[in-house]
Each structure stands twice: as C-alpha cells, then as structure tokens.
Design brief:
The complex is a heterodimer. In chain A, 0% of the residues lie in helices and 52% in strands. In chain A, the strands form three sheets. In chain A, strands 2, 5, 6, 10, 11 and 12 form a six-stranded mixed sheet that branches. Chain A has a four-stranded antiparallel sheet with strand order 3-9-8-7, with no helix packed on it. Chain A has no helices and twelve strands. Chain A starts with a strand and ends with a strand. Chain B is 0% helix and 50% strand. Chain B is built from no helices and eleven strands. In chain B, strands 2, 4, 5, 6, 9, 10 and 11 form a seven-stranded mixed sheet that branches. In chain B, strands 1-3-8-7 form a four-stranded antiparallel sheet, with no helix packed on it. The chains are: A mainly beta, B mainly beta.
Chain lengths: 114, 115
C-alpha cells in the first residue's frame, strides 16, 4: 500500500524568505511519481511540481524545488522568496506503478506573513 | 490550454435526494477520477475510470455512488440518497497516463451541500 505523510499541519514564513514543507512516503513500488499541489482558499487544486523516482536531479519549477531524498523516502517542497500569494494549503501526492490512484497527504497550511 | 470542467460549481440538496455531478475531462486523457474533500480535510480518492469501466475504487465508493461516461465526453458521478456527511467538495480529474509520470489535472470542483 502507498502512504503519504505530511507532519506539518501549519507553517508560517516571512515574506521573501524560503520555506520547506515536509513530505514522506511509503511504497513498495520501484517506479513512482511524486507531486505537489497548491490549494488556495478558492478551492482549486493547482499542480506545482513533479519528481520521478528515477530522476537523478531534483525537480525545479521557478520558485519551487523538490528536495528528493530517495533513501529516506522524502520529497520536501522548497518555496524560495515567499510571496503573500503563496498562502494556501499544500498537498503532497504520489502515484505508484501499480494501479491508477494518486495518494494524497493531509496537507500543510502555509501562511506568508508580510 | 485544455482544462477539466465541472458542473455545477455548487449544489444544495435535501438529504435523501439524488445528485449528479458532471465533468468534462481533457479530451485526449485516458484516466478519469473522482476525489472528495470534506471541508478542511484531506483529498480522498473515490474512484478511477479507464476504458469505460471502473479500474479502482475506495471503500468510500459504495453502492450509493456510481460513475459513467455516457457520451464519450462527459464523466458523471451519481450520489443516490444523499446523507449529511456527503457534504464536500467533489473534484473530477483526468490524466493522460502512459506511465506514472504526468500529473492529475483537476477541475475546479463541485461543492455539494446536503441539508
């Protein structure tokens, strides 16, 4: 079975600072994908970044980067130069190689302080 | 840019009534999903659909729920005999899936309120 764990229910960061949102996962699949989504207060789910289990480089998308440590089964999201608009819920998700389901963590609520 | 569209954006219904939530996935995608998010809680998998049949479903997806793709473009979730605890945001999503790469493309959600 696949499992995603986000241990930080809420985080605060000062505007323009960097913040790391933690995500650990558990899977027996050899091949899998890891995803981060942002959910602002308006409710939509916005895809941020993807990391494949065989990717040797950490994924980056603009101010988002994924700190992928395969041996530790962690896929932390790093947001650099935080902006007020980054205040939202952030969900880590995983898809394994067996089945079609995406598994989501419980989310981290990020608040950016001016 | 292609997107997943959902209707209605908000539906209010009386307990015991049936509701149908509609979704138009991205046209060249192969896998379709329904997820549910009770207010302030995690995103929960309900069902995935591929090749005109259910490929996976969760424990939540019991006989009260059904899905179909009636016309090759719409993908619907039917909830029979709604209960108060069915109040949630229901997200439709699609995925092109050729491997485990490729993110889920979510619709904007349908908020269901059961009174």
């Amino acid at each position: 079975a696949q499992k995603i764990t986000q241990t930080q229910p809420g985080m605060f960061v000062q505007e323009k600072e960097a913040v790391t949102l933690d995500c650990t996962y558990d899977t027996s699949d050899q091949s899998y994908g890891l995803f981060w989504y942002k959910q602002p207060s308006s409710g939509e789910m916005i895809f941020l970044i993807y990391q494949g289990s065989y990717d040797e480089q950490n994924a980056t998308e603009g101010r988002y980067s994924l700190n992928f440590q395969k041996a530790r089964k962690s896929a932390n999201l790093v947001i650099s130069a935080s902006q007020l608009g980054d205040s939202a819920m952030y969900f880590c998700a995983m898809r394994g190689n067996t089945g079609n389901q995406f598994y989501f963590g419980t989310g981290t609520s990020l608040t950016v302080i001016p | 840019e292609p997107e997943v569209t959902q209707t209605p954006s908000h539906q209010v219904t009386q307990m015991g009534q049936e509701v149908i939530l509609r979704c138009v996935p991205i046209s060249n995608h192969l896998y379709f999903y329904w997820y549910r998010q009770i207010l302030g809680q995690k995103v929960e998998f309900l069902v995935s659909f591929y090749n005109n049949e259910i490929s996976e479903k969760s424990e939540i997806f019991d006989d009260q729920f059904s899905v179909e793709r009636p016309d090759g473009s719409n993908f619907t979730l039917k909830i029979r005999s709604t209960k108060l605890e069915d109040s949630a945001m229901y997200f439709c999503a699609s995925n092109p899936r050729t491997a485990n790469t490729g993110e889920l493309f979510f619709g904007e959600g349908s908020r269901l309120t059961v009174l």
